[in-house]
Structures are given as structure tokens and as C-alpha cells.
Amino acid sequence: PINFERNVRKLTATQIEGLRALLQEIPLDEIKSITIHSYTDNSGTPDINMVYANERAISAHHIIAEYVAADKIIHRIWGDADPVAANDTEENRYLNRRIELVIELWVTAE
Asked: CB 3.0–4.6 Å: which of 6, 23, 32, 97 could bond 104 by disulfide?
């Protein structure tokens, strides 16, 4: 996952560099779709959490679209649903503020 500091809505330069490095390792012509799953912690209201999750997904989308056709990029905005850790400490909330990418490749017969 790519994790976010509190109140951060966009990828940092380091995160962008890492995402670009990942995309350069994938055979781009074999990508069927990339789904961006975006999550928050439970600190804000549900509406605010959805805004943050959406803006984080859009930030990743812009970088992915440099490599992959935009119609292959899907957003799934979850807000504070499906935490990977309890939201009881700042460290755990950091783990929950994340985007995850699911990359689906075309299967080729050989």
C-alpha cells in the first residue's frame, strides 16, 4: 500500500517516484485494468473521509495515466471501511490511510 500522513490528500514526491518505478516494471501492454482502492482512518466525518479518499485516488490516477490509458484505471473509494488496523493509535491510523492497487493483466495463451 501507499500510506498517507494525516490531512494529506496527494502523493508525495517520494511516493510518486515509487509508483513510477512500479509501473516501469510491469509489461504495460498486458495491463487489462488497474483498480485504485482508497481508504482513510476514522478521524474525520464520513463525508470528509470520502473526499480525502477520492482526492488520494485522483492523485494516484494522474501518475498511473502517464503509463496506462485512463479508461483502464478504476477508482474504488472506501473511506474508513475495511481498516487494516484498529484506529486506536496514530501509527495504526497511518496504516489505514492508504491506497492499494490491484493490477489485472491479460492472460495470454502460449
From this structure: 32
